[in-house]
Amino acid sequence: MNPLPLLFVVLLLYGPLVAYSFTFHSHVGFALVRKILLAALPTFEPHTYQLDGVCKVLDKIDLVAVTRTGSGKTGFLFLTILVMIAIARDPSLCPGVKFPKDPAIVVVCPTNSIEQQMEQNMAKLGIHALMINSDTVTAARIRGEDLWKKAREGISMLILGPEQLISKGFQDLLKCEAFYDRVCALGVDEIHLLAMWGLGFRKAFTQIGFMRARFRAGIPIIGLTATLLADPTIADAIFDFLSVNRGEFYLLRRSNARHDIQILFRTLYSGIDGLYFPELAWVLRNSDKTLIFGATISLVFRIKIYLDSQCAENVDRDLRIRAYHSINWPEENLETIELFKSNPGCQIIVCTNGLAQGNDISAVKTVIQVGEPESAEMFVQKPGRARPNAENPRAIFYISALRVAKAIKIVSQSDAENAADTKKDGAVAMDRPVAEIISGRCKPFIQDKLYGNPISDIPCTCRTCVALPPASRPISGRCSDCLPEVSTEVYVP
Predict the structure, then answer these.
(1) Where in the chain is the domain with CATH 3.40.50.300?
(2) Under DSSP, is residue 491 helix (H, G, I), strand (E, B) or coil?
């Protein structure tokens, strides 16, 4: 039997369907999305890798994007919603593809500061965003306003803390058909915290995958981070929290190395529980915009008090040195960030880890950590607060000789032996990846190993990266292991 007539009938019947089957992740799709975004943001050209991820999401494919700090991870969110809004308003841009009339993305953020910054950035782009957390809900209630009702219509990006996902307000919002039909994607920022915090003190992180099941079928997820460890056990735990499976989502992994940042390790001679930190006195002798991280609010207070005591009498200490932590009112923390950005007299922020995740403060040149990083993720995230537009950005870690010796011992022993030592001597535990970083030669090399960084990324062809390409991997190391530091800043007791 000649199959051609049958094939002709199939093409005749199903040809129109094939003609309207459109894929965003294609040459034609890339060109269309780029055209839409250039029309919406004339002064902004998306990175090639951003287009890559956005087109996958528009095809309703889950995305996990791993890119370095400062590379524009938030762009995966706002570029996606801008394309959806454009096509919803003008279906002729892409016949056969439909989005709700008033599309929206729900975004889960780990900290209030990230939520505040994201809401502000969306407003600058003309995107109607709404931040809902315990603070904003309380403030709105005092004003007589219901933020959950406000979110039902006209809000293109709903920014939530993880605790809000299990709140009655959000449950009622999902019951609202007008809102339910508008949601086109679920974004989760800083997904590495799902394992770090979700298994510890913020159980709400573990609910993200469950809440996803309550949205319409086919809603893609957008997971963003700069620090997804290569260890498959840790990565799979994060994927489980997101409710995505290996092989069923698009993993966009680029190197998280910041070759523009110099990594320096210096000896901390002062007791971390003490009141004096002469190792930091040099910070007051220059004008670099500086973040100083302490692991606890107590340590932040003590560093701030010490630096205040070292200031000249004619200096406004409360302006020059600010403290950022969860005990402050949210408005005070927000004021600190704004002063740091805009006022030359505000030079130093002493802060807890709340400023380590996702905050984009363009003025930062120097980042200091007093004590070892709490995790390998913090080793990457905190230096990442230094901006590439600063001259010679750097990150300095002050670690005591005792903790360095502890790191060397941990690397030389098994996990069982280390657990027994910690139980016996009662010392603060140290993760093996952190121990590898502290004890290893050439910190950037250890970072590449822990995160499985590619030797080189596929070059971005956008105008910005062509004109000002990101810093490339140096031929020889610039860290204090590879190039011993000789500086007047180094404290010798």
Answers:
(1) 23-253, 262-467
(2) coil
